[in-house]
Amino acid sequence: MTEQNTQQPPSVPLLARFRLALDIWSLGAGLIALLVLAPVLSVIWIAFHPVENIWPHLISTVLPRYLGNTVLLMGGVGVLTAVVGTVTAWLVAMYRFPGSRWLDYALLFPLAIPGYVGAYALVDFFDYSGAVQTALRASFGWETSRDYWFPAMRTPQMAVLVLSAALYPYVYLLARAAFREQSNCTYEVARALGSGALGVFWRVGLPLARPSIAMGVALALMETVADFGTVEHFGVQTLTTGIFSVWLSGGNAGGAAQIALVILAIVVLLLGIERISRRNARFHRMARASRPLEPQSLRGAGAWAATLVCAVPFGLGFVLPVGVMLGHAIQKPEAWVSKGLFQALGNTVLVGGVAAALTVGGALFLVYGVRMARRGVPRLILPVTSVGYAAPGAVLAVGVLIPLAALDHRLADAILHLTGYEPGLLLTGTAAALVLAYVVRFFGIAQGAVDSAFGRVSPSLPLAARSLGRGPSGTLTAVYLPLMRGSVATALLMVFVDCVKELPATLLLRPFNYNTLATRVYEQASLERLGDAAPAALLVMLVGLAAVWVMAHTNRA
Predict the structure, then answer these.
(1) What is the distance between the alpha carbons of residues 331 and 337, in angstroms, rounded to a whole number?
(2) Residue 27 parent element (H or E)
(3) Can you tell me the distance from the alpha carbon of 483 to that of 457, in angstroms, rounded to the nearest whole number?
(4) Strand partners, 297
(5) What residue ranges of the chain are covered by domains with CATH 1.10.3720.10?
(6) Is residue 258 within 8 Å of 45, Cβ to Cβ?
(7) Which of 19-33, 164-178, 185-199, 413-427 is the most confident on average?
(8) Taking a C-beta distance cutoff of 8 angstroms, is the pair 101, 309 a contact?
(9) Would you list the DSSP string of 75-123?
(10) Would residue 152 be called left, alpha or beta, if left means φ above 0 and alpha means ψ between -120 and 50 degrees?
(11) Distance of CA 484 to the CA centre of its chain
(12) Does residue 375 surpass a pLDDT of 50?
């Protein structure tokens, strides 16, 4: 008589545990996605259910001016960034001329300069009391501004110039990569058919790079809509400054949410136009006939003209802001030990570091959970959660602060009722709201980097780990993370740098008397104390340069 084995196979409980873990990861990914989307949904809800509806008043008074100025800025910045970014990318990719090798990287450096720092530097250098006009009056004996003509500085045109100088690298980076990815055979055929340098660019290079240029311009326009410090310094009333005016000066949160809804509509429209513009564009490189691009050497006046064309945006977007701030810092060295600077530095490192860690950690959990689900519906989460990066900081501040303030008061009342202790505002009274806004704002950056890193890991490696008994968590820590540590570190740096530079959300959400480097620069510069603002501005630019260096080496062709 044989004994019957009543024990279950060991694979059954293992499979059950794996399915349970998979459900936990999927549930966690859904919760993270809901947290990221909550501020945007909050703005929409508040806009349609305001306590005091001032929408008719806004339409009849300030909204047309805010919207008109915003559209004009977008038009000017869109044209300038497209022209400057595309032309410089074409010259660097296609030709060799004096300085072309270092300009290849130097043209990315303006990405390290926040637009508001460039605005302060331009006005300080070219304004009536600045170095240029002072030197002109001393040289020609002019005594007042009536003796000569000089362009006015605080105008919308100058705001367009500063924003374009700070944002053209978005177009340059993507266009340069698109030009270099093309086969040299394509351009040789165009030249053999009689096309000159301009014809090759117009008929071959530009159409092939159009999707990348459109993406770069869309990014620049979204940053233009989100900007506050630059337009505020030049006195241009845009939708973003309107949020500050209606909310802080007018005390109407519902009106601010309604203006924020207009901004969200513009951002969605930009994303839609960008998608449509490249929907039917399909350009492929034939691998069999592909040859790397071979830049041609320019000589004579043409070579120096190319150098000048590339050097001007680099000088305006990077050399001028750094030079002005460095000059003020040297003239006033005591500003480096002034009260509040190191506290602002510590606050910046703290909130930026915490936000970067939470953002990248959440992105890892979300992307891994969605990949494990292997269903169509959960995969829709990834593109939706990227909307936070397109939403300006001022818009997210409205969606974060108003719900959190209501929750904060209820939480404080409950603790007081239960314990008799008055805890104060635990969320909006601390940097927690600021960290949450940073996480939502820059979640798309971390998610894109993490998703790309997961895609580069061979599927056979996690399958082997699971066959050896590793669960989902073990597979992530033992297989994925060691192979992805470079991409994760890059994502941490990029998110941290963007947190350091973020101004509108920080101004609206920071606790009382809580400064970061960005808000310190803004406050000191607003008081015309650029010498006191210079050290903080240089620290912000130094952190930004670290990210640009990583980006330049990551995108090395």
Answers:
(1) 14
(2) helix 11-48
(3) 7
(4) 96
(5) 54-283+290-319
(6) no
(7) 164-178
(8) no
(9) HHHHHHHHHHHHHHHHHHHHEE-TTHHHHHHHTTGGGGS-HHHHHHHHH
(10) beta
(11) 23
(12) yes
DSSP state of 468: T
Q: Taking Cα atoms as reference points, which of 450, 474, 452 lies closest to residue 461? A: 474
The C-alpha atoms of residue 305 and residue 48 are separated, in whole angstroms, by 55
Segment (H or E) for 95: strand 95-96
Half-sphere exposure of 120 (CA within 13 A, CB side): 31
111 Cβ contact list (under 8 Å, min separation 6): 166, 169, 170, 544, 547, 548, 551
Closest residue by Cα to residue 436 from 397, 488, 382:
397
Rounded Cα gap, residues 19 and 26, in angstroms? 10
Is the Cα dihedral 445, 79, 554, 461 positive or negative?
positive
The listed CATH number (1.10.3210.10, 3.30.450.280, 1.10.3720.10, 3.20.20.370) that belongs to domain 54-283+290-319: 1.10.3720.10
* Tokens encoding 140: 């020609």
Backbone angles phi, psi at 151, to 5 degrees: -60, 140
Residue that the structure tokens 């890892």 belong to: 364
Position 557 scores a pLDDT of 45
How many CB atoms lie under 10 A from the CB of residue 160? Answer: 24
What is the predicted pLDDT for the residue at 287? 47
